[in-house]
Design goal:
four-stranded antiparallel β-sheet, single chain, 14 strands, 16 helices, 418 residues, five-stranded mixed β-sheet
Length: 418
């Protein structure tokens, strides 16, 4: 049976939401979404379609916008965007089962439309038009759609062909893909090919997907290892992964990460405080989800003028999820590996090899009563935070001058939540 996938994207989503909230048309309004309190160097999370028509690129910095353009600066409101995204997801559920929807990001989703075309007595392009119209009439948000014989082709149809279509819809099957996009450039327009991969391909005298498809596969495997398989399949417009495969996937091992870019350059002592805050918040997450870890990993990035990073990995004697047992190995790694004389700008922590607590054995050399008491206290704190707000109960260290938890608790994805 011929498969048909839709990939729907909400155009200039954050900027479009801000225009809709102001009763403005994104196609006639100059608007950027950015936190101007961070200075002219802050990145614009989105720009309105009108700004794109004027040559302003998405993800530009405020100072890069020509001074001749008058525009509105909208402070990011991540909760508002998530609310719109959830409401639009509800529209998808009018047409598809949740089992046939894969949410790829806050503004993009895949749908397996194969079994629905006969039900609705439409072809895939007609179905895409119905959904796009529903989204616009309900929320005044413009959507674009890619339609493909597999998820990869649907994504490429969205990213490359839909933007040049008057209907905001693109369609690709394998033959159409080869006829129209084999010689398309740049390679970075294709899903999962970044600038680094493009440079490596260019060094091999490979400049488009036709070249990838007709290159000796041994060369590609030598350069990219197992990832060459995806490059080769995609060069021919093939993709075996389905939404059902994604739904059924269960990772062999799990990790939990937390990272942040600091608001300014931090000294060794002040960054140590932030590290402790991050460990405390992440350990609470482990406890809430009834998970434990036996491996901790640390990453320290330095000021923008310093091109280096430090950190390391520490294997623990036992699985745990309590702060008192996790903070010690992290601080030991921090003390041992961090350059004390260079300003710090990025901190990342990771709990690796995370498993469910019920799958672990108790240690004879651990004061289990003390650990259970600490875990119970953390659960109580989490319950209060979930009901009353994250800043309703905090540790004393969160009140210190260089602490970041109070501020970051009001952010979503590193940006203003409200």
């Amino acid at each position: 049976m011929q498969k048909y996938y839709l990939c729907i994207d909400l155009k200039s989503f954050y900027a479009s939401v801000e225009c809709v909230e102001r009763g403005l048309d994104p196609y006639t309004t100059n608007l950027v979404v950015a936190d101007e309190t961070r200075g002219k160097g802050t990145i614009c999370l989105a720009v309105s379609p009108r700004m794109k028509m004027l040559g302003v690129k998405n993800r530009c910095r405020l100072y890069e916008i020509p001074p001749t353009i008058n525009y509105i600066i909208a402070t990011p409101r991540m909760k508002k965007y998530i609310e719109y995204s959830a409401n639009i997801y509800a529209i998808y559920l009018k047409y598809f089962s949740k089992d046939d929807i894969h949410v790829y990001s806050v503004d993009e989703a895949f749908m397996d439309a194969t079994d629905y075309l006969k039900l609705y007595k439409v072809n895939p392009i007609e179905l895409a038009k119905i959904i796009i119209k529903d989204i616009f009439q309900t929320y005044r948000i413009t959507a674009t759609a890619g339609i493909g014989a597999n998820m990869y082709l649907a994504k490429i149809a969205l990213d490359i062909t839909a933007k040049h279509s008057a209907t905001n819809i693109g369609f690709l099957d394998e033959e159409k893909y080869k006829n129209e996009l084999w010689h398309h450039k740049p390679l970075t327009d294709f899903w999962q090919i970044g600038k680094g991969i493009e440079r490596r391909l260019n060094r091999m005298r490979i400049f488009d997907m036709y070249d990838v498809a007709h290159t000796d596969q041994k060369r590609l495997y030598k350069e990219f290892g197992i990832n060459a398989e995806f490059l080769i399949d995609h060069s021919w417009g093939k993709e075996n992964c389905t939404i059902a495969d994604i739904k059924a996937y269960r990772p062999k091992s799990t990790s939990i990460s937390n990272s942040q870019v600091l608001f300014e350059d931090y000294s060794f002592i002040n960054a140590r405080l932030v590290l402790k805050e991050m460990i405390e918040l992440s350990s609470q997450r482990l406890i809430e989800e009834n998970l434990v870890t036996d491996t901790v990993q640390l990453y320290i990035g330095y000021s923008k003028d310093i091109i280096k990073a430090t950190g390391g990995t520490r294997k623990l004697e036992n699985y745990t999820n309590v702060y008192s047992q996790l903070v010690k190995p992290f601080l030991e790694l921090y003390e041992r590996t961090t350059d004390k004389d260079v300003p710090i700008r990025r901190i990342g922590i990771n709990f690796a090899n995370v498993i469910e607590r019920k799958n672990t054995q108790l240690s004879l050399f651990t004061n289990q009563e003390k650990i259970d008491k600490e875990r119970k206290l953390e659960l109580t704190m989490s319950s209060i935070k979930n009901k009353m707000g994250k800043n309703k109960i905090i540790r004393g260290m969160d009140l210190q001058e260089k602490a970041t938890t109070l501020v970051r608790n009001n952010l979503v994805g590193g940006h203003n939540a409200e």
